[in-house]
């Protein structure tokens, strides 16, 4: 497919700006800082911002997409967001002279489609409410979970690669990317069974729930086998679950970028629905299954929004865990004391501070200072990862100021 000269030049100009940014010495300096943190020998706390409400962030046309072809528009959107983040809220982001293009991989479903009702407050916002319709009522329903059969669409992948290399020839390196898989079976099960049903049946129908998670775990592990065997895993991870992924320990010895193995990679996982269950139940229904996944990877980031300060002891048993998510709902003191110097305290500051009617930066300062103070007291390697930002009340400067505050505190 031929592209218009206009589309091509729009992308090449943006590519040149990204390449200029990637050539700055600060990029290698920041990579070294991430490697130090991820190696549990931090120089200072690190800062990242991700999962931004881009529909609220426009300033002076910086995010306005000017190309017309759909493929070009997707590339242009990514480039513009990269430059915008660098210019306004960079934190410790790293810009590389690379444009990633996903390999076209078919057949990744588990045989069951999500059925849901949605509640929408802002039609421009992709963050919506979900009510999931139960599709896991009987033993026969469990049997519907199937093992994905992954197939690389070689023609579509080659076409995407050819187009991208033509556009960015002499400017950016095109990197054909495979999957960066994580393990969150309970996020999937919630979509099939519903939140209330999952929590109730952990108590009332425990064997039924074990059968569901066991079958899904087997399917996901089979999928991982296929990704390895077919060379479809991602290479060159710059981030893992919204945090810097650069690490001296990865990739593992014997690495081949054309045939990445799980042990060359980070993976991440979570069980957000288990926020209110006991450590024993978390172990039985989640970690006893998850260990089969995590044991295959080089490094592990565990957790998301679920508060984990009372579960550090069981997470210690997870193979290769290096970062533990400390959500807005944790007891920071307990979490820091129990993590100590053994893992990265991956703090998720509360994005609600940016969503109110008024912007109060002093609240942000106090919140971040508390985290840094507790982590310093207990010797925790720490990162500040602002994510899940559903709104900034259409005031982009709030996010810019958050980044400035966090970087000042991290540098003190």
Mean pLDDT: 96
Tell me the distance between the termini: 53 Å
**Form type:** globular
Helix proportion of residues, in percent? 40-55%
Weakly predicted, low-confidence segments: none
Annotated CATH architecture: Alpha-Beta Barrel
SSE order in H/E notation?
HHEHEEEEHEHEHHHEEEHEHEHEHEH
How many beta strands in the DSSP annotation?
14
- For this structure, the CATH topology is TIM Barrel
Task: Describe what this molecule looks like in 3D.
There is one protein chain. The chain has 412 residues and is α/β, with parallel strands linked by helices. It has one domain (5-411): TIM Barrel, CATH 3.20.20. 42% of the residues lie in helices and 13% in strands. It has 13 helices and 14 strands. A 6-stranded parallel β-sheet has the order 1-14-13-12-11-10, sandwiched between helices. Strands 2-7 form a two-stranded parallel ribbon. Helix 10 (312-315) links the parallel strand 11 (299-302) and strand 12 (321-326). Helix 7 crosses helix 8, helix 8 packs parallel to helix 9 (279-294) and helix 12 packs parallel to helix 13 (397-411). The protein is globular. The protein starts with a helix and ends with a helix. The model has no long low-confidence stretch (mean pLDDT 96).
What layout of secondary structure does this protein have?
Elements: H1 5-22, H2 25-38, E1 46-49, H3 70-88, E2 98-102, E3 105-106, E4 116-119, E5 129-132, H4 139-142, E6 151-152, H5 154-167, E7 173-177, H6 185-193, H7 195-204, H8 206-229, E8 239-240, E9 243-244, E10 266-269, H9 279-294, E11 299-302, H10 312-315, E12 321-326, H11 332-339, E13 344-347, H12 361-378, E14 382-386, H13 397-411
Parallel strand pairs: 1-14, 2-7, 10-11, 11-12, 12-13, 13-14
Antiparallel strand pairs: 3-6, 4-5, 8-9
Helix pairs in contact: 1-3, 6-7, 7-8, 8-9, 11-12, 12-13
């Amino acid at each position: 497919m031929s592209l218009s000269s206009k589309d091509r030049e729009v992308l090449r100009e943006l590519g040149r700006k990204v390449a200029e940014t990637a050539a700055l010495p600060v990029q290698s300096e920041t990579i070294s800082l991430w490697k130090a943190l991820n190696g549990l020998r931090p120089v200072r706390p690190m800062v990242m911002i991700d999962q931004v409400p881009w529909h609220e962030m426009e300033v002076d046309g910086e995010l306005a997409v000017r190309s017309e072809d759909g493929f070009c528009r997707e590339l242009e959107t990514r480039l513009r967001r990269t430059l915008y983040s660098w210019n306004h809220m960079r934190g410790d982001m790293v810009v590389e002279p690379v444009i990633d293009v996903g390999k076209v991989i078919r057949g990744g479903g588990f045989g069951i489609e999500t059925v849901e009702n949605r509640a929408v407050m802002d039609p421009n916002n992709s963050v919506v409410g979900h009510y999931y319709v139960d599709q896991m009522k009987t033993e026969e329903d469990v049997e519907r979970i199937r093992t994905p059969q992954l197939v690389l669409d070689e023609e579509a992948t080659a076409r995407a690669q050819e187009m991208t290399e033509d556009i960015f020839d002499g400017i950016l390196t095109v990197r054909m990317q495979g999957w960066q898989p994580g393990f969150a079976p309970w996020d999937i099960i919630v979509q099939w069974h519903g939140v209330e049903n999952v929590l109730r049946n952990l108590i009332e129908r425990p064997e039924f729930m074990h059968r569901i998670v066991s079958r899904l775990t087997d399917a996901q592990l089979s999928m991982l086998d296929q990704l390895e065997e077919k060379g479809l895993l991602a290479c060159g991870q710059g981030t893992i679950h919204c945090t810097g992924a650069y690490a001296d320990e990865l990739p593992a010895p014997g690495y081949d970028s054309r045939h990445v193995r799980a042990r060359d990679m980070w993976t991440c996982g979570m069980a957000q629905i288990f926020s209110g269950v006991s450590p024993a139940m978390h172990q039985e229904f989640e970690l006893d299954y998850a260990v089969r996944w995590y044991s295959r990877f080089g490094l592990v980031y565990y957790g998301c929004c679920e508060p984990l300060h009372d579960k550090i002891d069981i997470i210690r048993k997870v193979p290769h865990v290096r970062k533990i998510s400390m959500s807005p709902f944790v007891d920071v003191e307990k979490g820091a004391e129990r993590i100590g110097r053994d893992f990265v305290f991956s703090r998720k500051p509360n994005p609600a501070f940016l969503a109110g009617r008024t912007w109060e930066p002093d609240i942000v300062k106090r919140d971040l200072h508390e985290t840094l103070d507790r982590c310093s007291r207990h010797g925790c390697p720490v990162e500040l990862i602002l994510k899940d930002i559903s709104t900034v009340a259409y005031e982009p400067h709030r996010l810019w100021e958050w980044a400035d505050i966090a970087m000042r505190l991290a540098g003190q």
